Amino acid sequence: MEFVVNGKQLHVAADPDRPLLFVLRNQLGLTGAKYGCGEGQCGACTVLIDGVRQPSCITPARTVAGKHVTTIEGLADGDRLHPVQESFIECDAMQCGYCTAGMIMSSVALLHKNPAPSEPQIKEALEHNICRCGTYNRIVSAVQIASRRMMSGVKERRHA
User: Fold this and answer.
1) Residues 135, 95 contacting (CB under 8 angstroms)
2) CATH classification of the domain holding 136
3) Is there a domain that residue 157 lies in?
4) Tens digit of pLDDT for each residue in 126-150?
5) Which residues, in sequence order, are bridge partners of residue 77?
6) Which of 11, 42, 87, 122 supports an S-S bond with 36, CB 3.0-4.6 Å?
């Protein structure tokens, strides 16, 4: 099957019913998306498929044929992090880091759809991403900062 991963056209020989998460991790070496619940409920495996947030653990590989898949590894532009990645670091919006890639991918999908979300809209967009460490307030702050940065094009520093 052929699809685009992080901007690169790939031909991958995989069982079409195999979850996309395992194709990404085991065949392509893209380990940012994590296996969490295996039921699409925790968000640790979130990737973007044609720009839409999708849990890769329940997405059969066949469904991405001809589509564009973006993983956490594909967000940065060379050495320059995506604004959402930068804001997560600056806000210390992670502890153990297990949920971080999924949180960031869901946040990127939200900001592409709604560049200036309210706090309730951010919380709603992230309701399918679980952070066992409880850094939700810092995550919301990070998304708000990234939103302002992306809209203004100006790098804003968080002052703790």
Assistant:
1) yes
2) 1.10.150.120
3) no
4) 999 999 999 999 999 999 999 999 9
5) 80
6) 42
Of 74, 99, 124, which closes a domain? Answer: 74
Same domain, 88 and 136: yes
pTM over 0.85: yes
The string of pLDDT tens digits covering residues 56-95 is 999 999 999 999 999 999 999 999 999 999 999 999 999 9
Closest CA to 105 of 21, 16, 29, 15: 21
Number of domain units in the chain: 2
Tokens of 147: 């939103």
Q: How far apart are CA 128 and CA 13, in angstroms?
A: 30
In one letter, which amino acid is 32?
G
Residue 60: inside a domain: yes
Is 158 inside a domain boundary? no
- Quick check: 103 and 126 in contact, CB under 8 A? yes
